[in-house]
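Field guide to reading this record: the first block holds the primary sequence, the second block holds the structure written as discrete tokens, and the final block holds curator observations. Each block starts with its own label. This record concerns GTP pyrophosphokinase, catalogued under organism Liquorilactobacillus hordei.

BLOCK 1 — SEQUENCE
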Amino acid sequence: MEIYGAYGKYLPEIKNEIMHKISELSHQIEKRDEEKLYEHLSGRVKQEESMIEKCQRKGLDLTPRSALNDCKDAIGIRVVCNFIDDIYKLVGLLKKQDWCDVIKEKDYVSKSKPNGYRSYHLIIKFNTSYPDINGHVPGDYYAEIQLRTIAMDSWASLEHELKYKHNIKNPEQIGNELKRCADQLASCDVQMQTIRQVIREYD
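BLOCK 2 — STRUCTURE
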């Protein structure tokens, strides 16, 4: 089933456009402040099977409208930063851009999920040259942007690998250990931020 319908062919291009905009923004800051905003930038279009499963889980109709308007994460962008402050700096800059509107945000950096997951999530509305589900040209599409530090991203990747790809007999113990690791990495993030601040003050 092609849940994205005729609009699926536009999604990779829109993903690339958003990544290009973020890359340009980083280059501008790098020239001005001599500090890069992020370490890695990546993007994906959610696979049709995953979007169908999500719509079913949320009780939505299996239609392009559900996939593109109700779920809002068919396009996903991940920004991996070096320091915690860089996350908030980039969030602030994205809110000021004229090429997108931030319509929703969740701060799991300052307040992690119970399992230890930490990241900053933004849902943006992005105006494109393509027709959208409402028949508008130019049309609006949504994307989710996740911003993390290197430590947060490493933990999330490993947690997914360890927890969801194996038949775990003692999930509570594994969950507790993963939470402990997340807390330790969070402490390291804070320490690295402090070291950076001290270096800046000496400079």
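BLOCK 3 — OBSERVATIONS
The chain has a mean pLDDT of 93.
The longest helix spans residues 171-202.
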